[in-house]
Structure formats: C-alpha cells, structure tokens
Amino acid sequence: MASEKKAVLSVRNANPADIDSLVALTGKVYGVDLGHSADMLRGQQAQFPEGQFVAEYGGRIVGFCATFRIDEATAMGPHSWAEITGGGYASRHDPEGDWLYGMESCVDPEFRGLRIGRRLYAARKKLCRKLGLYGIVFGGRLPGLEKRIKAMGSVDAYVEAVQEGRYRDPTMSFQLRNGFEFIGLLPRYVPSDTESMGYAAHLVWRNPDRHDQPRTPTPHGSSGLPERVRVATIQYQQRRIHSFEEFAGQVEYFVDVAASYESDFAVFPELMTLQLLSIENSPLPSVEVIRRLTDYTAKVKDLFSRLAVRYNINIIGGSHPTLTESGAMRNICHVCLRDGSIHEQEKIHPTPNERTWWGIKGGHRAAAIQTDCGPIGVMICYDSEFPELARHLVDQGALILFVPFCTDERQSYLRVRYCSQARAVENQCFVVMSGNVGNLPGVNNFDIQYAQSCILTPCDFPFARDGIAADSTPNTEMVLWADLRLQDLARARNNGTVQNLKDRRHDLYLQRWTKRD
Length: 517
Prior knowledge:
With 517 residues, this protein is α/β, with parallel strands linked by helices. It has two domains: 9-206, Gcn5-related N-acetyltransferase (GNAT) (Aminopeptidase), CATH 3.40.630; 228-495, Carbon-nitrogen hydrolase (Nitrilase/N-carbamoyl-D-aminoacid amidohydrolase), CATH 3.60.110.10. 31% of the residues lie in helices and 24% in strands. Strands 8, 9, 10, 11, 12, 13, 14, 15, 16, 17, 18, 19 and 20 form a 13-stranded mixed beta sheet that branches. It is globular, with a radius of gyration of 25 Å. The protein starts with 8 loop residues before the first strand and ends in a 22-residue tail after the last helix. Residues 211-223 have low confidence and may be disordered. InterPro entries: Acyl_CoA_acyltransferase (IPR016181), C-N_Hydrolase (IPR003010), C-N_Hydrolase_sf (IPR036526), GNAT_dom (IPR000182). Residues 229-486 form the CN hydrolase domain.
C-alpha cells in the first residue's frame, strides 16, 4: 500500500530560500548579535552548497549545520573559529581538502528531544564518506566549563572528567557519544563564548572507509547507503495489561532500548496487539473480538509513528487487525519511518485459521518501501512460505526483508524459520524475524505462543556462520541485534560462490504480478 502520510521531519541541503529562517534560528540559539548574518549564509552556500544541511520539521527549519573542506595541516593546527571559517563565510573552503570542517551545528531549543543533532551529524558523516575524505574535524563548545572550573581546577581536568564520564558536558558529551575523538584544546577559539571561557575541544571523527581494503560492487541505486545497518528485533513477551497506556509504555521501553544502541530498525512481532484483548477480556465470538481490536488502529499507528520520530529509529510495527474502508478485515503491518512517514503492508496470505475464525482477507499488493537504509520489504508470517512474494520484493530492490510472525508451537515456528532462511539464500538478502512469547491464561481468544526470533543472512563467505547473524533463546523475552553490511550483499550477488539472482533463467521462466494498481 502506498505511503499515506508525508514525512514531517527530514534533513536536506540548505538553499537560498532558507536564509531568512536560518538567520532567525541562529539568532534564537546564540542571540541576535552572535547569530549568522544573511551574507555569511550566502557565502557558505556559495562556497560549498553540498555541505550545508537543514533539519525541517513540518515545514519549519529547526536545525542547521554548516561544513566546508580544508587541508589537514590547517585543520589540525592551532586556530580560532573566525580564522578557519574566514569570518563565518566558509571562504577558506578548499575543493581539494582532505577533511570536512564542521563550522556550525545548532538546534531550535523548542525541538530538542527529537535527536535532530544526531541526524545532522549523520548527514555530515554520510557526506564525508561519499567524498572519501579522511574525516570530520571541528572545535566543539564546552558550555559547562565556566560553572565547573573552580571545582575542577583546570580546563584539562574538566575535559578529562567529561571523557571519563564523571561529568556531563551538554555539547562535548554528545559529540563523544557520536564517535568523535578528543585531540586537544583550542584556546581563544571563540573569545565571546563566556560559558566555554573561549575554549573549544578539538575533535575528530575518522572515516572508517579510509583503510587499505578492496572496494566492493554496490547494488544498483545504492549510492549513499550506509555501510552498515543495525537491526534490533524484539522477542516480545505477552503480559496482561489494564489500559492502552500500559501497552504504549511497554512498546516505548523496547524502542528506547533499541535506539540507545543506535539501531536503524526496531522490529516487533505479528499480532502483538492481541495483548490489548486482556483490557476488557470480553467473552465474545472471535470475529467480534477482532473487530473490537480494530478500534485501536489509530492509536497504534500514532504510537509507532510518534516513537519513530522521537527516538530517531525506523519501526516495523508487527501487525494489527485493521478494518479497511471497503469493510474488509486485513492483517496490516505499519512501517513507521523516522522521517515521520507511515507505510502499510497487508498480509497477502492469511492462514486458514485467520480466515475461518477472524474473517481476515488477504491483501493484493506487496511494495518495497524506500528508507534511509535502502529499500526494504515486509512479509507477515505465512507470507514467508511463498517464495514468489520475496522474489517480487527483491525485484523491486529490497535488501532486507522483515518477517513479523506469530506462531503457537514449534512446528508452526519452524515452517516460518526454514522458509525465511530459504528466502535469504535464494534472494541473497537479509531476513529479520520477530515473534511473540508468553501465554495469557484466562484471556479469551488468545492463543499460546512459541518463538525463536532471529536475523538471517545468505550462506556465503562474507556472512555469519550458518547464515545466522543473531539468534534468540526460545520463548524468552529479549532483544537481538546485528550489524548488516549492505556491501556484503553486493559482493555476494556480483561475485559470490553462487549468484542466485544473476543466474536465473529468464529464458525459461518469469514471475508476473497480475494485480496492478
């Protein structure tokens, strides 16, 4: 199903139309006299337009960062902000410079808590890697220094305390968590910065791609994709709850955990919302109970979308019974991306029990979803047992297939597990499974649960042994992580021991999707 909601939070390159908003933003953050002038902003965009980024929330600019290229000797030597930035105009931009210099980064105070700073830093890192530069360097503020200097005794002691985690500096601690390395102090960096006593922390982030290692082919259209995608799959414990708010609190806990480990995706199980049946626990016929559950659809979608934006993580929202406008009952996965957009994937193949007991009907469309980590696809449980569906998604470019599932006993689970592993092998893609565990005795219309969630890979030399990147303990609530390297897929597809996608016999057989929009 197509996207039904436009992105509300995005990072893009700045353009001349943004200048007035950026003048207002920097003035709001630093004070009117210390903010960037329109002339400075025009200079930055003229010198290095691809290095200027804005974060936009609902059409409003709420974050900004500016960069330019510089040679190593200048970047690593003593300097002030005014000297190295050419007075704020980025006039020392060197098109052949080996380092990216971060001259500015700020976020509207009203919009803090949405990880906007992290998104802007990610945009810088992506640009650095795209250009093949050595890394990013800048002078970072020390806004806690003035208040703590007497207790610490010296600037060096203050920085040491921040590095060791004994004291949290609002700016430097954030930068250290983002992978930056402290290499020294820059005195008189911004003399007017009284909170930092004029000092700045000289920080660098080193491009991990700049190593002596062979280049690998990339999938078609994958330019700009991250080198690795961190996936968190949640093996979710079903437990009694008394309100939707209690359910939301449990979901947020796991999203927070996944985001704390800098995951790009958090994956929840199929029909995880059956837990909501324990609120009323009505002894009604199964079809009527499922229709009652659809009353929560709007709340469920809003919950996942809000958490995706707040925690800066893409959420595969398991699945939820949903009554469509046509009156058909569908089992739908809501995919809520961290840019605020919402996508839906209907279960194509309901099981016989879903059709008989709940009146659930199959959907008609399987579409790859474009994310900031590349195209993905969703196959809900039983869908994974039909190889045509996975191939259809991979033909659209999907690199990762997510399989939220809900199975009641080991045989049911193994059907999904074995088929998902087969889909990873035959399509040379990653497959991520997420299932429910736990039982709710005394809750009407709630079945038993069996799961062993996992993250699966193709079976070839670049990948994990046995084609399993991460595996769980059966029937135990837990979170699994794996770092998935998209270039490993490119290597396997283009030069692997076997090359399933390339070696298909299109002269003998074709797959045709008959239902069209």
